[in-house]
Design goal:
single chain; five-stranded antiparallel beta sheet; alpha+beta; 210 residues; elongated; cell junction
Length: 210
């Protein structure tokens, strides 16, 4: 049990990383656009996520009544950057891989703490968990890096007219989802490293199977 403390930490870090990955995926605040024309986007700020775009408008119900207007990226639209659809898939894969990593870690830790000494099985499950965590972290890193690059280079998107969005902002900044995603990447990669570092203890009094 004393030799698996790092792996217990890996489980804790992996759990938090997986939760943060899920949170970042659900947030719309990936890229914050500042626009000059406030006719429709009343607050002058729009949020560009990987599933939808949103902004505050006063026009859709009645003057003076604030409403959040959102438009989902439904199906495939050629004007929407392919990276957005790739980010959707990568984050879903990351969530699934992270869950598999947590499951493998739970199984290995269960064997250790219940005294089920099976060297090959325990080692392999930690190894598999480590690879799942690292792959999940890389899957999160790609959309986070792309969105951060898009923000720093103030890249535009040719939205269809139905989105009521300008094709380019006056300025833009990173939304809350990006730092949350960065922390998720760090925790998942750390978790994977800790899991891969496991070495089954060999003592004279230990009977090993496998």
């Amino acid at each position: 049990v004393s030799t698996s403390r790092l792996q217990l930490a890996a489980f804790a870090l992996g759990t938090v990383g997986w939760i943060l990955c899920t949170i970042s995926m659900g947030l719309v605040e990936w890229r914050v656009w500042h626009v000059n024309n406030t006719t429709v986007i009343s607050s002058g700020i729009a949020w560009v996520g990987i599933w939808k775009v949103c902004f505050i408008s006063y026009l859709h119900i009645s003057p003076g009544y604030k409403e959040q207007f959102c438009h989902k990226f439904s199906g495939y639209e050629s004007s929407i950057p392919h990276e957005i659809y790739a980010a959707q898939g990568l984050l879903l894969i990351a969530m699934f891989l992270g869950l598999l990593g947590l499951t493998a870690t739970i199984f290995a830790l269960r064997n250790i703490y219940m005294g089920i000494i099976h060297k090959t099985l325990i080692t392999r499950f930690f190894l598999v968990a480590g690879f799942f965590y690292i792959l999940a972290g890389l899957c999160v890193l790609i959309p986070v890096s792309w969105n951060f690059y898009s923000v720093t280079h103030n890249q535009s998107i040719a939205f269809p007219p139905s989105y009521y969005m300008p094709s380019s902002p006056a300025a833009q900044e990173a939304g809350a989802a990006i730092p949350i995603g960065i922390v998720a990447v760090i925790l998942l990669l750390l978790s994977g490293t800790f899991s891969l570092s496991y070495r089954f203890p060999v003592t004279a009094n230990t009977t090993m199977t496998g």
